[in-house]
Amino acid sequence: MRTSHLSRRLRASSLLAACAGAAALSGCANFSEVKSEDRDLFMVSATGVSYTMSIPALTAAAKEKAYDFCGKQQMKADLRQLVRGWRPMQVELYFRCQPQGVSLQALLD
Questions:
Q1: Cα maximum dimension of the chain
Q2: Strand extents, DSSP E, the chain
């Protein structure tokens, strides 16, 4: 009886530690300030702090930063170019902010 109680407690504590570790590592990215490359072209860089963060996770984090930046201006992000690097793990995302409701085709016409 005592052994089963102890093993359940050990399993619960190791599960808790694994969940806490996964949560801590899921957001390990440093971001640059959003920089203006041109008058309407912006760039944000996301760098992985730990090699446990994948390039797709860094890409998603950079996209979220671009959407937030344009959203604060009540505009939508138009993602343009993505540059990925493995040493250090880094993603550079170039984007433009466009008024909401405006399509790319309408801008070309």
A1: 77
A2: 29-31, 35-36, 42-48, 75-86, 89-99
What does the pLDDT read at residue 106? 59
> What are the Cα distances from residue 45, in Å, to 5, 49, 50?
49, 13, 15
Cα separation, 55 vs 25, in Å, equals 13
Give CA torsion, residues 36, 37, 38, 41, to 10 deg.
-70
The three-point CA angle 70-93-99 to 5° equals 25
The C-alpha atoms of residue 104 and residue 22 are separated, in whole angstroms, by 39
Per-residue pLDDT band at 76 (split at 50, 70, 90): very high
Residue pLDDT, tens place only, 57-72: 889 999 999 999 999 9
74: left (phi over 0), alpha (psi -120 to 50) or beta: left
Sequence ranges of the domains in the chain? 28-108
Rounded to two decimals, the pTM is 0.63
In this model, does residue 50 exceed pLDDT 70? yes
